[in-house]
Specification:
Elements (H helix, E strand, L loop, with lengths): L1 H5 L3 E13 L18 E6 L7 E9 L5 E10 L21 E6 L5 E2 L7 E10 L5 E9 L5 E10 L8 E11 L14 E6 L14 E6 L6 E11 L5 E7 L2 E3 L2 E3 L14 E5 L3 E2 L2 E2 L10 E2 L16 E5 L3 E13 L8 E13 L1
Length: 354
């Protein structure tokens, strides 16, 4: 008789993505429009930053990811440094007549014929990236007509024409003066974070769903579900992602959470999660993306699950590129688990340290 009642047990929980920032100073925050920063340093300096002057520019960066680079693109825009958003070209700026006079670090580049007035593309036969600082000196760039800040969008690509997905990407800024020579840079701090049932790599605008329904529970099988998290930051000291919430409850009845890592045990009431690809039961994925943030101990072993509210799930101590995490949930019940609708609301909190 009890088995018949258990057939009608259902379980579901909502998910809330929460974004918190910690630190002083001006912030530029975007969940949908900011690209990850892999470069440890990046700057554009010039011999003369007066408006309408013809100047020599030096583009330099370091901390690039391991991979293959066939092109480098620098866009200069008056509106913002956020890669992927529309770029407003500075009036009077002209890069098309520039010549590449010197280069160091990653070498073999020439100026691509796809270069435009506000977009420099350096191209070469694709080759592996090199550690350390890469620098490129360009002569004969005509400065904009108007004084003020111009934002740069720096990217590297495996292709030779800056097409396809970028390998590394960062924002920067330079300042043009009307009457005095001054060079300055500005890198906006940011934290990108989103959550959903599904997220396409690596785009928060594709995040869909915030409700996971496990259906009818049974003491004869393990029920599963999943959530995906996408994060990136240029914060000096990286970021953490925590989970807050309760285990599955129906009134006063509880499905106990796993306080220490354990396998899924059919016939035993338990609730837990991890961030790995699992085979028992088959669910989840390993972390995707070029970043270096790591899954915390207790949640990083395939086929072992845990849930303690307030636990750190992911952490990084340095600026980090896109990382896509899949949170896999398991729920089991015993034959004696009281019938009911079991619900939990979880919060995922991303905290960056600038």
């Amino acid at each position: 008789m009890r088995e018949r009642r258990l057939r009608f047990q259902r379980i579901a929980f909502g998910l809330i993505a929460v974004l918190l920032l910690e630190g002083a100073g001006p912030l530029a925050i975007s969940v949908t429009q900011v690209s990850a920063a892999n470069f440890a340093t990046r700057q554009v300096s010039m011999s003369d930053n007066l408006v309408n002057a013809v100047a020599n520019y030096t583009l330099a960066f370091s901390g690039q990811s391991a991979g293959t680079v066939g092109s480098i693109r620098l866009q200069l825009c008056t509106n913002d440094p956020f890669i992927g958003t529309p770029c407003t070209a500075p009036a009077g700026l002209d890069i098309t007549l520039a010549t590449l006079s010197n280069q160091s670090g990653m070498m073999g580049f020439t100026i691509s014929p796809n270069t435009t007035a506000n977009q420099l593309i350096l191209t070469r036969t694709p080759d592996v990236t090199l550690p350390g600082t890469s620098s490129y000196e360009l002569q004969g760039i005509h400065n904009p007509n108007n004084a003020g800040t111009v934002f740069g969008r720096l990217e590297t690509f495996a292709s030779t024409d800056a097409s396809g997905s970028h390998l590394d990407a960062s924002g920067l800024a330079v300042n043009y003066m009307a009457n005095a020579v001054s060079v300055s840079t500005y890198v906006p701090p940011y934290l990108l974070f989103c959550a959903g049932n599904t997220i396409q790599p690596y785009d928060c605008t594709t995040a869909q769903g915030n409700f996971v329904d496990f259906g009818e529970l049974s003491s004869l099988k393990t029920s599963t579900g999943q959530t995906q998290l996408l994060a990136a930051t240029n914060a000096d000291y990286g970021y953490t992602i925590r989970v807050l919430g309760t285990t599955l409850t129906s009134g006063i009845n509880v499905i106990p959470s796993l306080q220490t890592p354990d396998i899924a045990r059919t016939g035993v009431s338990q609730f837990g999660l991890n961030l790995r690809a699992n085979s028992t039961p088959p669910t989840g994925n390993d972390v995707q993306g070029s970043g270096s943030a790591a899954v915390a101990s207790g949640y990083d072993t395939p086929d072992y699950y845990k849930f303690v509210s307030g636990d750190v799930l992911v952490s990084s101590t340095i600026p980090d590129s896109y990382r896509l995490y899949t949170v896999s949930y398991i729920a089991n019940i015993s034959k004696n688990q009281p019938a009911g609708i079991y619900v939990s609301t979880l919060q995922y909190i991303a905290l960056a340290s600038f």
